[in-house]
């Protein structure tokens, strides 16, 4: 790219001169992502269990830290 092309490109973006169509090639009805029947994988019960355990541990820590403030 020459210096003139770089400056012209910079001026185009700085000036907000967007004369091109960002949605070119997209029809109104072609933007449906739910039409792709991709099956979901199996539920990872181990990961969900570990997440639930982490939440319970977090709640237990919050309770342990809150007990001294409630005794005042």
Write the layout of secondary structure elements.
Elements: H1 3-14, H2 45-70
Describe what this molecule looks like in 3D.
With 72 residues, the protein is mainly α. The chain has a domain at 45-72. It has two helices and no strands. The protein is flat and about 75 Å long. The model has no long low-confidence stretch (mean pLDDT 76).
Please provide a brief summary of the model:
With 72 residues, the protein is mainly α.
List keywords for this structure.
72 residues, mainly alpha, 2 helices
Number of helices: 2
Number of strand segments: 0
Order of helices and strands: HH
In percent, how much strand structure appears in the residues? under 5%
Low-pLDDT parts are: none
Beginning-to-end CA distance, first to last residue = 72 Å
Question: Helices and strands: which structural class?
Answer: mainly alpha
- What is the average per-residue confidence, as pLDDT, rounded to a whole number? 76
Instruction: Outline the biggest β-sheet.
Output: none
Gyration radius, rounded: 28 Å
Residue share in helices? 40-55%
* Coarse shape: flat
What's the multimeric state?
A: single chain
């Amino acid at each position: 790219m020459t210096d003139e092309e770089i400056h012209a490109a910079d001026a185009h973006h700085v000036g907000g001169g967007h004369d091109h169509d960002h949605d070119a090639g997209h029809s109104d009805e072609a933007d449906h992502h739910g039409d792709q029947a991709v099956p979901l994988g199996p539920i990872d019960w181990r990961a969900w269990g570990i997440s639930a355990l982490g939440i319970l541990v977090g709640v237990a820590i919050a309770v342990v830290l809150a007990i001294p403030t409630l005794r005042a």
